[in-house]
Amino acid sequence: MLSSEKRRINVEFLTTLKGMVALIKDPGKTESVFDIEDSLRHTKATQIMVEYVKSKPGVAQIVEQRYTPPPVDLDALLKCPQDSLGYAYASYLTKAGFDPNFYRKPVGDDDISYIFLRIRQTHDIWHVLTNFGADEIEEIGLKAFELAQTHRTMSAVLISGGMLKMLFNQPENLERLLDRIAVGYRMGAKAKPFLAQKWEEHWDKPVAQWRAELGVEPTPVYVP
After folding, report:
1. Matching Pfam families, A to Z (predicted)?
2. What is the reported pLDDT for 168?
3. How far is CA 141 from the centre of its chain?
4. 84-102: per-residue pLDDT in tens?
5. What is the average pLDDT value for the chain, to the nearest integer?
6. 205-213 long-range contacts, Cβ below 8 Å, gap at least 24?
7. Is residue 106 within 8 Å of 38, Cβ to Cβ?
8. Is 29 helix (H, G, I), strand (E, B) or coil?
């Protein structure tokens, strides 16, 4: 008879496998991403990720505080100065038809749950500041930025899955994908920790100022 620990591991493995299959079939299926990440929360890689991000300046304090911003009001943000983060973020979401609360809220109040929440919560802010677009290859570029910044397990999974998909289904796009991964990782390694920022308290700050303070050079458009 299986112990409760072995049963948990088996369930998490099956959940991860199911999520990977669903993700390969439909890369835009966000719920599959959350399924995979939530099933990996007890792995050694995830624990190392938590230790890594908390070692970065300012991140441990945010995690310990469980900093929780108020709900996003896109209409209010569209009234911010046009060069501000708030305006750029709200414009990006509005034009793309994205919901700022698209993410699944992790269950629990431990450090892992909070870090998962904060990364999901600020995902589109990272898009705006790095200048990575929203198509599949650009998303993988942002995952490379995330990987450098956080060692997030899910980022590595998505990068690996993206490379496999390109090799088998879209080999003509492999060069662009590799370029985005390289650009994103270099940018993430150079920039100051995004997880240490309370973006929501400084919506009026210009995007250019944020980038200068954090050492972010927005990604240029890929040219073959």
Report:
1. Coq4
2. 87
3. 11
4. 999 999 999 999 998 888 7
5. 86
6. 205/84, 205/85, 206/81, 206/83, 206/84, 206/85, 207/83, 207/84, 207/85, 207/88, 207/128, 207/129, 208/83, 210/85, 210/129, 211/129
7. yes
8. coil
